[in-house]
Amino acid sequence: MTVGSFFFGAGAVLLVIFAVVIVHEGGHFVFAKLSGIQVDEFAVGFGPRILWRRRGETIYSIRAIPFGGFVRMAGMLGLEGEPDAGPRNFYRASIPKRFITIAAGIIFNFVFASLCFAAVDMQSSPTHVQPGGPAARAGLRDGDVIVSVDGRPIRHDNPSATSQDLHAATGASHGAPMTAVYRSTDGAMHTTTLKPELVIINGLAQGRYSGNLLVVTAISGHPVGAGDPAGLLHGATVAGYVESPPKGAPGDHFTGFVVSDQITTGFGAANRQEADWFIGIQAGSVAAPFGLAEEKGEGLVPALGDGFAAIPTFIHQTVGGLYQAATNPPQGGLNGPNGFTGPVGIAQETVTAANSGGGFFLFWIGFISMNLAFFNLLPIPFLDGGKLLFVIIEAIRRRRLDPRHEALAYAIGLAVVLVFAIYVTIGDVGRI
């Protein structure tokens, strides 16, 4: 890793953290101010202050540990000995004002994520060329349009049609060099030779590589030949390098990878080892998670509709996915390849997203914002969901719980969150 790539990756991680944390804490801050609650500090990060400035009654600070943040309000716990802002104490505000002040962080993260997704849907979707892949080595660049492959015309009605035609042409080559005619972004026509690479998808036979695209450079000590991918790789020992993380670094070489004797030709089945010929071209934005538009370049209104509709779809898919990970042994449990990802894994995938272009990076920021909102919905004391639960209990009982009991619950909740963070971090490290 070069110094430049390190600072690029670190900058991308900090940008994502700052964006989603500022949005989340900004929700608390805005509604606290609107509710007349005194805000003593707006902080990004934890630990000692690095930079800070007081404006009016509020200190705005950046702290040393850049994971999370907080808005400190007067009388937050309602305990004796806290700074007293009189009627502007948090626990002297009405129940509706306290409820919306706590919930605003979650709401802001969901709204911010939806706006990110809408912005992605509004972008045009030129062809993306995988850096270092066969198409890039053949001279293609982002935005170039492949007109034909080995004389077969390539449709460009929509990203799905383009992807299907390119996949069919690549599969028909069986790995042999192909002649491609393409139109560059300046309108000029070019002819080049594309040599597909053999890629293993879902390398589940070895935990280190689960979730990666693995480019095969040798099969049982011999150069890669032509033919059906599954037939070439069936039960073989292969060598190669990682092309697409999340778990490994791009270019990370591997040897002695044993291919499952159940490997199949194709791409798209979950939890099954597959292989296919790839040329390293993504036709626009074919993947459309959470119900987002498959074909980009939408207008403002439909893009906003798709962006906000992604919220319930995301929650449903996340809950269902976690349930399957916990109850389906082949998926490896909550700490397996389909379970939770912690700080290390998020940092790795953030760097990958940043290297994949602005559109995907913007989608990733929205995705992290959505995850932060979902995590804070959990009814765990210390998280926003747990605080909301206490406000609801107070509304039902018509009197507040003992502040000392609430403070104890928050301390226990914090301990649970920290233990969970350590648990998923161990899983992240195990997958490296």
Please compute the radius of gyration using only Cα atoms.
25 Å
Number of continuous helical runs: 10
Compute the separation of the termini in Å. 16 Å
Number of extended strands: 15
The helix-strand sequence is: HEEHEHEEHEEEEEHEEEEEHHHHH
Q: Specify the biggest β-sheet.
A: 7 strands, mixed
Instruction: Quote the average pLDDT.
Output: 84
Shape: elongated
* Helix content, binned percent: 40-55%
How large is the share of residues in beta strands?
Answer: 15-25%
The chain-level structural class is alpha+beta
The low-confidence parts are none
Question: Would you mind describing this structure in some detail?
Answer:
It is a single chain. By secondary structure, the chain is α+β, with helices and mostly antiparallel strands. Among the domains are: 3-121 and 367-431, no CATH class; 197-273. It is 44% helix and 21% strand. The strands form 4 sheets. Strands 8, 9, 10, 11, 12, 13 and 14 form a 7-stranded mixed β-sheet that branches. A 4-stranded antiparallel β-sheet has the order 5-4-6-7. Strand 11 (237-244) and strand 12 form a beta hairpin. Helix 1 crosses helix 7 (343-355), helix 1 (3-34) packs across helix 8 and helix 2 runs antiparallel to helix 8 (358-377). It starts with a helix and ends with a helix. 36% of the residues are buried. The model has no long low-confidence stretch (mean pLDDT 84).
